[in-house]
Amino acid sequence: MSETSQLFFGIISGERARTHDEVADRTSRIAGGLSELGVKQGDSVCILMRNDIAFIEVAYAAMRLGAYGVPVNWHFKPEEINYILKDSGTSVLVGHADMLHRLREAIPPGVSVFSVPTPPEILKNYKIDPEGLEKPDFAIDFDLWLARQVSYDGPVVPQPQNMIYTSGTTGHPKGVRRSAPTAEQIAPQKKCAF
Fold this sequence. Notes:
The chain is built from 8 helices and 9 strands. By secondary structure, the protein is α/β, with parallel strands linked by helices. It is globular, with a radius of gyration of 18 Å.
């Protein structure tokens, strides 16, 4: 890809690229679909993916609804992931296909699981069992689901940033909800004259 052609893309990952318009369209349709599932302001959407374009789109879609994108550490064991799914109160988990198979027993009842195809650049750089690339039978195919969604047309709501889990010092990680900075927090600070 030439340097000039890269200027037209919003996100590039390996050989894959999406324009700003494509990312905005997909984000809006993901938000529309999440809204239809009942995700609303203050809710959480858990994301179990390595660095991927879909990770960003899902996180932005959650924010659009006023919900928190909750990145789940993909190194966690199933019982740790189960704890975060329960503690965050999520009703949605979006994950790379190869990471979901081991979670069959760890998914709490009522959580919709979406399987995102593991991208080629990740397959190239990680030792992933080729047998784990298929969508698990308990998950929804993310791409097929997304193709049927319409853009979100609901109200504009305050957008939080995300909900991160700290390493925790009392046995379990702690969920920390991060809100967007206030106007006062982002305003330039006055210098003191002595």
